[in-house]
Design brief:
184 residues, mainly alpha, two-stranded antiparallel sheet, two-stranded parallel sheet, globular
């Protein structure tokens, strides 16, 4: 049932949002000369996939979880993208391809072994990763893998259609802090 909504909303978002995507890509090109960010992430059943986002950090930033990256790595335009969550828009492509859902546990990096193990232990890895979810709207990031996996498990076990829409609305209206970066 959720997959149907994922397809409808991602197609709608990509088509209707294409002018915004184009404008953000052009501004991003002037900001970093590399506006699109691709990174391998862990997907459903631990299958790797390439996540697509707008770049918010300098291209030479180390490939680490966001909470381990320095705040000085985030560009001025990147701050705007993160604050408005517009950096997530290209992930609609991942949703359309079936690699992600709009709502689910945030996909982690392959080197976040503690989080992967916790999610596997709780069967969270059987769910498609999402752009947003219960942890994100409550400001829980990947810096506490056990707590994150617990909240992801809670969401997976209790997710209803009402929750699916509630998490989307809360995300669009600015609830949650997103992934935090380490202060310089």
């Amino acid at each position: 049932m959720f997959r149907v909504f994922d397809i409808v909303f991602s197609v709608f978002g990509l088509v209707v949002g294409s002018p915004v995507l184009l404008i953000l890509a052009v501004i991003g090109w002037f900001d970093t000369r590399s506006p699109i960010f691709r990174q391998e992430r862990v997907g459903r059943h631990q299958k790797p996939f390439t996540l697509v986002k707008f770049r918010t950090m300098r291209p030479d930033t180390a490939c680490v979880a966001t909470h381990l990256a320095s705040a000085s790595s985030v560009t001025p335009f990147g701050h705007f993208l993160r604050r408005t969550k517009l950096d997530e828009l290209p992930q609609l492509w991942n949703v359309l391809k079936g690699e992600m859902s709009l709502v689910g546990p945030r996909p982690c990096l392959p080197n976040q072994e503690e989080l992967i193990a916790e999610r596997e232990r709780r069967a969270v890895s059987s769910m498609r990763p999402g752009i947003t979810g219960l942890a994100q709207v409550n400001g829980i990031d990947m810096s506490d893998p056990v707590k994150l996996a617990e909240v992801d498990e809670q969401m997976m076990k209790t997710l209803t259609l009402k929750d699916y829409f509630r998490y989307l609305i809360l995300t669009v209206t600015g609830k949650g802090s997103g992934d935090r970066v380490r202060r310089s």
